[in-house]
Amino acid sequence: MKHLSLKAVLIIIFGAALLLLSTCDKQPEFAGNVLAKVGDRVITSEDFMRRAEYTIRPDFCAGENYIHRKIVLNSLIAEKLLALESPNSPLLNNPEFTAYMQGRQEQAMRKWLYKTQAMDQVEIDTSELRSALRKSIRTYNLQYLNLPDSQALDGWKHARADGYDFEILARTLTGADTIPTHEMSWFERGDELIHDYVFQNDHKKGALLEPLELEDGSFMIIKVAGWVDRPVVSGLQYEQHYQDVQDRVSQKKADAIYKDYVTNIMAGKSLELNKPIFRAYAKQAADIYLKSPEEKDQLLNSAIWNTEEQIYTESLSGHAEIPGEATIFSVDGEAWSVDRFESELALHPLVFRKRNMSHREFPEQLKYAMADLIRDRQLTNEAYKLGYDEIPNVRQLKNMWQDHYVSRQTRNEYVRSEMLASKDSTQRSEVAVIEMYMNPLIDHLQNKYAEVIRINTDLFESLELTTVPMMVSSRNVPFPLVVPAFPRLTTDNVLDYGERLE
């Protein structure tokens, strides 16, 4: 199969234009509604809701009642207190953790870049909204087949020309009795390329769509098995539906605007591979990234943040065929050594466009992942120029992640030292360990720092939680988790410390 060079891929993806830079307005001190202050740290109502609902809470505070809400708030404050108590945590001097935190910050900066350069620029006219409202009630029942490359597509076209129908070819190629199916609603958020392709026109039952080339170089064959329309008629339901459609149209338009913005940023950029080093690197990297889930678990770095993020940090620099100083690729003529590339991976782990791939496909997908990494580095540089590292939203997000990991390490070390000091080898439940060791410590810290703790009790009383357990993550980003794991630090449900925040 003949592939485009990565230089050509970059030019095709990113296009050519000029970048217009803007300056940032002065930002407020904090982003969001401040629910609590702990020294120089803040917890917003938005933080409270996301930390409670975008991750799994322990059973002792998984409900929606007032007692459980107080445990949630106490837990978030306890996280800040432990971080405040640990200004010299060894974690803060750990180079890998420092790189991780920088990567987290830079991902937040790119998200803010998307907001300002795309989402804030969206304008919707009535004709667009009317068309979207008409399409939004439809759900398609699709049959589909994935073809790995253009060679497979040629075989498909020849077979179709010889008179073979979709069902026979699909069963033959998949080796299964059933053809993969998918129900796609207009509101679905998955692969936007496929979604736009399906919904750009009305389709009759049984229609076989033209092959669609995906970003990873594979092709999708789609047949419309049928569809159903579900009109929205009730007043309140229609109002919510109308708002949901408006939000979805805004997001899709923002994506298109941002794609043009990225095209401008990457105008004329080129990436040239050093093929011998790249081939050797790809061979070694494939053995890591394509391992089974069980094997990957054993490869995870022992650093505590990796247990949540599943970040693979094994260095390939120094292998016999991969010297660290060797150039693996060049960007606009600037050489990137293997060591420099792997330093960048600490800030931006590889994101593969294709989730499941064979060893044969891996080198091509690695090229795409490298191109996306270089693209994100350029976008990050633009975000730095615009001062987005000082945006309150970015600073607070970084602080939230840092305080989470520092507090968790402090907790682990404290419990371990207390158990060793008391020669306690009893096997206890997590709740029992928290009640025996952590509750007294958190009570002590609440008293110690009472003068710098402020709580907006009126705002707290207005907050409500759901009982639906969720784990929310983002797609196609280096660090997918939206918020850290819930801080399992205290079971205390009493707010008898600090002062009122007006």
Descriptive account of the structure:
With 502 residues, this protein is an alpha+beta fold. The protein has a domain of 93 residues: Chitinase A, domain 3. It contains 17 helices and eleven strands. Strands 2-1-10-11 form a four-stranded mixed sheet. The chain has a four-stranded antiparallel sheet with strand order 4-3-6-5, sandwiched between helices. The chain has a three-stranded antiparallel sheet with strand order 7-8-9. α3 packs across α15 and α4 packs antiparallel against α15. It is globular, with a radius of gyration of 26 Å. The relative contact order is 0.19. The N terminus is likely disordered.
Keywords:
Chitinase A, domain 3; four-stranded mixed sheet; four-stranded antiparallel sheet; 502 residues; alpha+beta
Strand order of the biggest β-sheet: 2-1-10-11
- What would the principal axes of the Cα set say about the shape? globular
Determine the mean pLDDT.
89
CATH topology of one domain: the name is: Chitinase A, domain 3
Proportion of residues in extended strands: 5-15%
Can you write the helix and strand succession as a string?
HEEHHHHEHHEHEEHEHHHEEHHHHEHE
Would you state the CATH class of one domain? Alpha Beta
Residue ranges: pLDDT <50 for 5 or more in a row? Answer: 1-26
Global structural class: alpha+beta
* Gyration radius, rounded: 26 Å
Number of helices: 17
Largest sheet: 4 strands, mixed
